[in-house]
Structure formats: structure tokens, C-alpha cells
Design brief:
The chain has 946 residues and is mainly α. The chain is 49% helix and 0% strand. The chain is built from 52 helices and no strands. It is flat and about 110 Å long. Keywords: ANK repeat. ANK repeats lie at residues 153-186, 333-365. Pfam families: Ank.
Length: 946
């Protein structure tokens, strides 16, 4: 649209309006059209910022006699409409700033200036935001109530100007026009908050003269203007003149925020100038308690600064020198300022505080830690800082034997650094021992010396990595003095227990005799190390005496049990070579070392399964070469049960060795009635279904070697060995069945399923089933009367079904307890077996049979929309279309009555079957005939698309 076109539209509308004024009829449609057109023209001229065009529009509107100008401007001031919208986003800065248009809008056009938009803002809100002082004055002159009109955020024009603009002069202008400055917005912010945040010193002075009370009022967060300024500071900076004035003018309540922090909490973390010191002095004259007043976390200004280690903690000497600070006040954790200064390694400030009040060094927190002890909880404290701290506190006679509530001494904390920075720990330990050598023997309430405290506190770190990273000198310092003592800790472990556990042996330990001291679980140091998993090489290097190898712990387990558990072949071999056991060692659960390893050991580990299997099998072979006897544990499990459940690839030599030890091991049941082959098959299912084993079912195994001679052995559910073997496609069972009694194939479980039917219902074992068809009783059925042929058609096993029918054609018409033949069952269950059913039609099944619902095979074929099958059935006997089910429905009516139709497939089936229908008016038990079914709305929709 261009200007000339806009003027042409206006001329046309004005002529129409003059006709109305001359006596023509004015319709609502014409009036609405005129308003819409004018709004379009006004929007257009505002978009292009065309002053002359806008003036001409207004002149045309003057001559309208039916109030068109009033209605247009009322509409233009409601919601998101042109004039107010353009005022809001500032596009009228040049246009509405012109005096003649502004005067016309306000005086001659009589625009409703009090109408707000969807945000609740009036034209005065936007006028002050854009700094249009002339228009602002005119709007106020016309309606002074606009000064205190609030938008949806509770903001008056002066609050909105202070919030979103940087025009201090506009705010002062509105204050001179008597705007109410005591009003707060929805967030509780007053004009004083915004003025303070923008450092408008002149506005603050004006507020002080006009309404000083708002300088101390709080917003919704509980912050006064001065506190709001401190919280909004993004960086630390010198206090401004505005802040100093606010601090002087605010009352005491305004100097505390909603978290209990007073202004001194904020001032102490800034670089203090002399003016700031004077301000603090004047504040403390009003309220001296602010200096030592705690916030909601119990932190005084001094504690607050030292806890969070602000850059300007150098203010502390100046702060404590000028003002009477109580250094003994602690936070909710009981820590004083000295605790945090020592923790952060601020040595100079620590010395200054101690000189100020030496008694503060003995203050303890809630964990009974002195500042020195608390400092050493910081594992990143450097060696130089830790040494200086110790020297500083020792200079003032601090007792290095001081302990926390768990009786941990300073050396206990230093020992914890060992796995982080051993050099720092070494220097610190040497410094501490130079003052007091007895610290190395200090024990906490768990009877742990510092080194034991280290290893017991690092349970999340690999045991063989803590001490290997530790400096050898530090290790000797922490260990050597305590090595020969048998004084145990709370669990009965001596230091030697832990040394052996981590497999790190000092030089002198290799020649010293190992102590036989046992802990509360009756474990000697070497057994304790084997239990918690040191290394194979470490156990071999230790002095394995007869006493150690033959003794058992509280669980009845020997060191051989634990070495077997971790599959350490070298340790197992060494123990068995040195010590000849007369009989198997059996723990309290009835497990031998080999059984314990197979029960809880980790043979397989994802991609490393082959490596772990080789390591495990080496250990297992070593144990099997040892003199074994038949052992059954509390769960009725033999070694073979546990082995086949754990390993992925069964080793033939291990099975042979197990049979050599116990010829009946393949037939022994556990408490669940499972023999080894059954356990193997169940675990194999879990492995194949788990994502943990990426190789899935495709791995070579000797599972056939686990098949016992007696195939009639069954589990608690009645499933025989034959059930399991056929289910898992173990081809080796075929020869055993053919050589043995064939009636094993008729043995049923508790669900009445023979081995063949059992496997077929689960969709498995097709290869073995095919090889056993000739000797199987194919008429054998389950509790529901389903034969193997029923299940094969349900699974869609076409070739297998054909072989069964060729062996016994009568099976095709064999009906289960629901009266369903094999093809009817497949269709009834909705299986996609169209191809197999078509091939079954070549064997001439009986099509007149009905099931328990009275449905024939044709009913189900129509329901599933199998057109080729329908054609083949009706080609054999077209009278089947007349057969009715128990609801007196023919196959066509049965198809129409069900909501299982796929319309793309149903259309040709329906068209074909209608050719054979003869009784269109026959009514079913619902009283509906075929025509009524076809006239349903869904069918009408279907035919409309056809």
C-alpha cells in the first residue's frame, strides 16, 4: 500500500459517511467497515511515520457526524492496538512528539488516556519510559490520576521509569508533579530501591526531603534499599557516595536483610576507605550490637568474611583494631573466625588474631576440633603453610595431643593427605614428630593409629593404589614404629593386617615372622589380606605356614577359600603344593574352596570374559587335581551345579574330572529339584536375555556333555531333562532318545505338556523337534487338548506342520477342548499364518467343524480378512456361507459385527463374500440382518471411499 492509495481509500469512506449524514441508511456493516478501514489506514501511516498523512486522516475524521472518531480511538486504546502499541515500543518518538498532533489526540480527538493495554500500562507509562516530557506533561494536565495508576506489576509511571530507564530527570519531573513515591510494586520495591540501585543521588536527596521513611522499607525479599545495593554488586568496589548517604540516613532495621546479614557483613568484604570506617563508626554509635550480630547461619561479619575467603579479608586487622570485635563468637558449626583463617592457610591473619586474643586458639567446634585440627581437614594445605601453622600454634603452647570427638589427633588428619599430596604429608609428619614422637602411637576411639585410620577411611579407593602412590619415607614413618605391636583396633586388626591387605611390604617385613594375631572374625593378617583382595603375587610372597593355611575363620573358611574366590592360580598352586590337605575344607555353608569360587567368584566380565575364563579355569583345574571328595552344600548344590551356572564356555576336561570324582554328579538335584543340565539351561536363558553379554547365544559350548543317562529326571514343575534339552535345541539328546525308551517324549509336566509341545509353545527347539517326529506320539496333547500341530500352525512353522500332516493326516481335524482344529486355533489367536493355512488346505481339512462359539473356519478367515483362504474354502464348498454360529451369524455378518477390520483388506473380502450370500434379510440374535450391518455408518464411510 502507498500513500496515494491510502488517501483514495479515505476519500471513498468519507463520501460514504457524508451520504449517511445526508439521510442515507447506515448499516452496522457499513459502520464497522468504515472503522476497520480507518484503523488500517492509521496503522499504515504509523508504520511509515508519515506526519502529513496522519494529519489528513484526523482532518477527515472531524467532518464525520456520527462519532466515528471517538469509536476509533476507543478501539485503538484497548489491548494490543496500534497507537498504544506503537507508544509502547517507541515508534512514535518523532510522531507523537510533535505538538499539534499531541494536542489533537488529547484535546480535540478526546482520546481516552486512562485506558490500559494488556500489560496494564497507560500512555503515561510509555511516555515517561521514552522520555517524552512534553507529552507527559500534557497527559498529567489532562488527568492527574494517571500519575498513580498501576499496571499489572503494581508499577506506577514513576516506578516504571525508575525501573527500566536511566532518565533521572524524568523521575525528578514526576516527583515535582506530586507523584506518590510511597507506592511499592508487586515485588515490594519502592522508588528508593530503584534510585539506590542506579545511584541517583539527587532522587535520594529528594526522597529524604519528601518521604524519608521509604529509605528503610523492605521489599519482598526482606531487603532495604541499601542492602539491595550491596546484593546487586557483581564485583567488589569502593563504597559510592550514594551508599554512604543511604547508610547515614537508614535506621537500624534497614541495615539487616532477610537472611540476617547486616550491612557490616557486606562492608567487610570490600576495600574499606577512611570514609567507610567513619560510616561504620556512626552505625555502631546507633547500634553497637551489629558488630557481633550473627546471621541466620550464626555468622558474624568477621566469621562471614573468613569463612568464604573473600579477597578483602585484609580488612580484618583494620576492622578488629578500630572496633571491639568478639573473636570467640562461632557459627552454627561451632567454628570461629580463627578456624576458617587457619583452614584457608592465611598465616599472617592467624598470627594477628592469636596476638589479639591468645585464648581463642583453644576454642572447639561441634566436632571438638581446635582451629589447628580444623585446619588439617583441608587436604589441599601445602607443606609450607602446614609447617608454619604448627610452628605458630606451638609458639603459643598449643597441645598437639588434642583430639576431636572421635579422638582423632592431628596426625590422623595429616595421614589422610597421603593419597593426595604425599610430599606435603611427609614434611608435616616430620615436623609434628619433631615436637612429639608419641603422636605416631595415638589411637582414636576405634583404636586406630594414623596409618590404619588412613586405609580405613579410603574404602572407596582401590586398595592397591593408596599405598603405591604413597612416598616410601612417609610410609616408613607412619608404619615402622607400630609394626611390631600387636595392640589391635576396634575390629581386632593389628597394623600388620592392613599392611598385608594392601600388599605393600617393607623390607624388614620380608624376613620377620608373621604374627598369628586374629581379628574379631578370627582372621590372621594373611587371611584378612586374601579376603579383601590384595594380589596373587603378594600372597605367594608371604610366609604361608601350616598354621595359617589350616586355620579357619569365623565363617569356617581358610585362606584357600579366599584365594580360590579371587581365582588366583599361583596362590592356589603354592598353597596346595606346600600343604597336603587330608580332606576338603568345608565352610559353614557347606562350600569347598572350589564351590565358594564358583558360587561368588567373577568368572565372566563382559568383553574380558575369555581372559577371566582362562584364569578361572586354571584355578579350577588346580583345585580339581587336588584330592577331592563329593560335597553338597546347604542348597543341595554340587561343584558341577555351581560351575555350569557361572561359566559361559564349559570345559570338557572339567566335566570329565567332576564325573570321575562323582559318577552320579550329572543326576544330583539341588533343593529346587534341578540337576546341572537344568541349571545350565536356566542360566543360559538369563545370559541370552541380558544386554550385559553382547555375544548373546552365539558361543560354542559343551552343553551336550551334561545330559544324564536318565532322561526321566524332572524338576519341581515336572519338566524332565528331555523338556530342557529340546527347548534349548541340544541336538545331542536326539541319539539318547532314539537309543532309549521313546515314551520319554510322552512324559508330561504339570501343565500336561510333552517335551515337544513344551518347546513349541515357547517358539524354540524346532531343529530337535523335526528330528524326533518319526518316533514321537503326535496325538499327545496338553491340558487344553492342543497337539504339536496346533502349536506349529500358531508359530507359522509351515514345513514342520506339513511333515506332521504327512505322518498323520487325521491331526489336521483333531479338535482341542474348545472344539478348534489346528487351522481354527491359529486364526482364533490372530497369528499371521496365512501361508501355512493355505498349504494346509491341500490336505482337505473338514470345513464344517464348529468350535465352542459355533464359528467355522470360514468365520475366522473372514474375521482376519484372508481373501485367498476365503476363496479356497468357498471354492471347495460354497454352502459354508450359510452356516451360522451361536449368535445366528453367517461368516459375512460375523465379519461386519467385529471391530477388527482392516478396511484395505476387508473391502475385497466383503465384495467376494457378498457374491455367495443368499439370505440378506436373515436376522441374527441381535435382530439385525446383513443389510443393516452394511448400512452402518462405518460401512457407509468405507463404501464412500471405495
Amino acid at each position: 500500500m502507498n500513500v496515494s492509495l491510502a488517501l483514495g481509500i479515505l476519500d471513498k469512506e468519507i463520501r460514504r459517511c457524508r451520504r449517511f449524514d445526508s439521510g442515507g441508511s447506515k448499516s452496522s456493516h457499513d459502520t464497522k467497515l468504515s472503522i476497520d478501514t480507518l484503523k488500517t489506514a492509521i496503522t499504515f501511516c504509523l508504520n511509515i511515520n508519515h506526519y502529513d498523512l496522519f494529519v489528513r486522516i484526523l482532518e477527515y475524521m472531524r467532518i464525520l457526524s456520527f462519532g466515528i472518531e471517538s469509536s476509533v480511538f476507543v478501539n485503538l486504546n484497548v489491548g494490543n492496538v496500534p497507537i498504544l502499541m506503537y507508544t509502547r515500543i517507541g515508534l512514535l518518538a518523532n510522531l507523537l512528539g510533535r505538538k499539534q498532533i499531541t494536542e489533537y489526540l488529547i484535546s480535540e480527538a478526546k482520546i481516552n488516556t486512562g485506558v490500559a493495554d494488556f500489560l496494564g500500562n497507560t500512555m503515561l507509562h510509555y511516555s515517561v519510559v521514552h522520555g517524552w516530557e512534553s507529552m507527559t506533561g500534557d497527559l498529567i494536565q489532562k488527568d492527574e490520576t494517571l500519575l498513580n495508576c498501576m499496571n499489572k506489576n503494581g508499577e506506577t509511571p514513576i516506578l516504571m521509569a525508575a525501573k527500566v530507564t536511566y532518565e533521572e530527570d524524568m523521575v525528578l519531573f514526576l516527583m515535582k508533579r506530586d507523584a506518590d513515591i510511597s507506592i511499592k510494586d508487586n515485588n515490594g520495591y519502592s522508588l528508593a530501591h530503584y534510585a539506590a540501585l542506579k545511584s541517583w543521588i539527587n532522587v535520594i536527596k529528594a526522597i529524604e526531603l519528601k518521604c524519608p521513611a521509604i529509605l528503610s522499607e523492605r521489599n519482598m525479599d526482606g531487603n532495604s534499599p541499601v542492602i539491595a545495593v550491596f546484593k546487586k554488586m557483581s564485583t567488589y568496589m569502593t563504597t559510592t557516595k550514594t551508599l554512604r548517604r543511604l547508610l547515614r540516613m537508614s535506621n537500624i532495621s534497614a541495615l539487616i536483610d532477610g537472611d540476617g546479614n547486616n550491612v557490616l557483613h557486606f562492608l567487610i568484604r570490600q576495600p574499606l576507605l577512611q570514609d567507610d570506617i567513619d560510616i561504620i563508626g556512626s552505625i555502631l554509635e546507633k547500634e553497637s550490637t551489629l558488630l557481633n550480630q550473627s546471621n541466620n547461619k550464626g555468622e558474624t561479619p568477621l566469621t562471614y568474611a573468613t569463612k568464604y575467603s573473600y579477597p578483602f579479608t585484609s580488612n580484618i586487622p583494620l576492622f578488629t583494631k578500630e572496633f571491639p570485635v568478639d573473636l570467640h563468637i562461632s557459627d552454627k558449626q561451632g567454628n570461629t573466625a580463627l578456624h576458617y583463617l587457619a583452614f584457608n592457610g592465611m598465616i599472617d591473619l592467624v598470627e594477628y588474631i592469636i596476638q589479639k586474643d591468645v585464648s581463642v586458639i583453644r576454642n572447639t567446634n561441634e566436632n571438638a576440633q581446635t582451629p589447628l585440627l580444623f585446619a588439617f581437614t583441608n587436604k589441599h594445605l601445602t607443606a609450607s603453610k602446614s609447617t608454619k601453622l604448627i610452628q605458630c600454634f606451638r609458639h603459643h603452647d598449643i597441645d598437639l595431643n588434642t583430639c576431636d570427638k572421635d579422638e582423632n589427633g592431628i596426625l590422623h588428619y595429616v595421614a589422610l593427605w597421603a593419597s593426595y599430596q604425599d610430599i606435603a604429608s611427609l614434611e608435616t609428619v616430620e615436623t609434628l614428630l619433631s615436637y612429639n614422637k608419641d603422636l605416631i602411637y595415638a589411637r582414636n576411639k576405634f583404636r586406630q593409629v594414623p596409618f590404619v585410620y588412613l586405609v580405613c577411611s579410603r574404602t572407596s579407593v582401590r586398595s592397591d593404589s593408596i599405598l603405591t602412590r604413597m612416598n616410601s619415607q612417609l610410609f616408613n614413618l607412619l608404619v615402622s614404629e607400630n609394626l611390631y605391636t600387636e595392640d589391635p583396633d576396634e575390629t581386632g586388626n593389628t597394623l600388620l593386617h592392613y599392611i598385608c591387605r594392601f600388599g605393600v611390604l617393607a623390607d624388614e617385613m620380608k624376613v620377620m615372622p608373621h604374627t598369628s594375631r586374629r581379628n574379631i572374625f578370627r582372621m590372621d593378617p594373611i587371611s584378612y589380606a586374601a579376603c579383601y583382595g590384595t594380589t596373587d603375587e603378594s600372597i605367594v610372597a608371604m610366609n604361608l605356614t601350616d598354621e595359617i593355611c589350616l586355620s579357619v575363620d569365623h565363617f569356617g573358611r581358610s585362606i584357600l577359600h579366599y584365594c580360590s574366590l579371587h581365582f588366583w592360580p599361583n596362590a592356589v598352586r603354592t598353597i596346595l603344593e606346600k600343604h597336603k590337605y587330608e580332606e576338603n575344607l568345608v565352610d559353614k555353608a557347606g562350600d569347598t574352596p572350589l564351590m565358594l569360587a564358583l558360587k561368588y567368584g567373577k568368572i565372566k566380565d563382559g568383553a574380558l570374559s575369555t581372559l577371566f575364563d582362562e584364569k578361572a579355569c586354571e584355578c579350577i583345574s588346580t583345585l580339581l587335581r587336588h584330592k577331592e571328595r563329593v560335597v553338597v552344600n546347604q542348597d543341595g548344590e554340587t561343584m558341577l551345579h555351581l560351575y555350569v551356572a557361572k561359566t559361559q564356555v564349559i570345559r570338557e576336561e572339567i566335566i570329565e574330572k567332576a564325573i570321575q570324582i562323582d559318577p552320579d554328579c550329572l543326576s544330583k538335584k539341588n533343593i529346587h529339584g534341578l540337576i546341572p543340565i537344568m541349571v545350565r539351561m536356566k542360566e543360559k536363558n538369563k545370559m541370552n536375555a541380558s544386554e550385559q553379554y553382547p555375544f548373546g547365544r552365539y558361543y560354542i559350548s559343551n552343553d551336550d556333555k551334561l545330559i544324564p543317562k536318565d532322561l526321566f529326571i524332572s524338576d519341581n514343575d515336572g519338566n524332565t531333562v528331555c523338556h530342557y534339552c529340546i527347548l534349548h535345541d541340544l541336538v545331542g539328546v536326539v541319539d539318547i532318545v532314539k537309543r532309549g525308551p521313546t515314551n520319554i517324549l510322552n512324559e508330561k509336566n504339570r501343565n500336561g505338556e510333552s517335551p515337544l509341545v513344551y518347546a513349541a509353545w515357547r517358539g524354540k527347539g524346532m531343529n530337535v523337534i523335526e528330528r524326533l517326529l518319526e518316533i514321537a506320539d503326535l496325538q499327545c496333547s496338553d491340558l487344553n487338548g492342543n497337539t504339536l500341530l496346533h502349536v506349529c500352525l500358531v508359530n507359522g512353522w509351515v514345513e514342520l506342520a506339513e511333515k506332521i500332516v504327512k505322518l498323520d493326516k487325521g491331526l489336521l481335524n483333531y479338535r482341542n477342548r474348545l472344539g478348534q482344529t489346528p487351522p481354527m486355533l491359529a486364526l482364533y489367536l490372530g497369528c499371521q499364518t496365512e501361508e501355512s493355512l493355505l498349504r494346509m488346505m491341500d490336505f482337505s481339512p473338514k470345513l464344517q467343524y464348529k468350535d465352542y462359539l459355533g464359528n467355522t473356519l470360514l468365520h475366522y478367515c473372514a474375521l482376519r480378512c484372508y481373501l485367498p483362504l476365503v476363496k479356497k474354502i468357498l471354492a471347495q464348498d460354497e454352502n459354508l456361507i450359510l452356516l451360522l454360529n451361536d449368535e445366528k451369524q453367517s461368516a459375512t455378518m460375523y465379519m461386519m459385527d467385529n471391530a477388527l477390520l482392516n478396511w484395505e483388506r476387508a473391502k475385497p473380502v466383503l465384495q467376494f463374500m457378498l457374491k455367495f450370500e443368499r439370505r440378506f434379510y436373515h436376522k441374527d440374535s441381535k435382530g439385525q440382518n446383513l443389510i443393516q450391518y452394511c448400512s452402518k455408518s462405518v460401512i457407509q464411510t468405507f463404501f464412500s471411499f471405495s
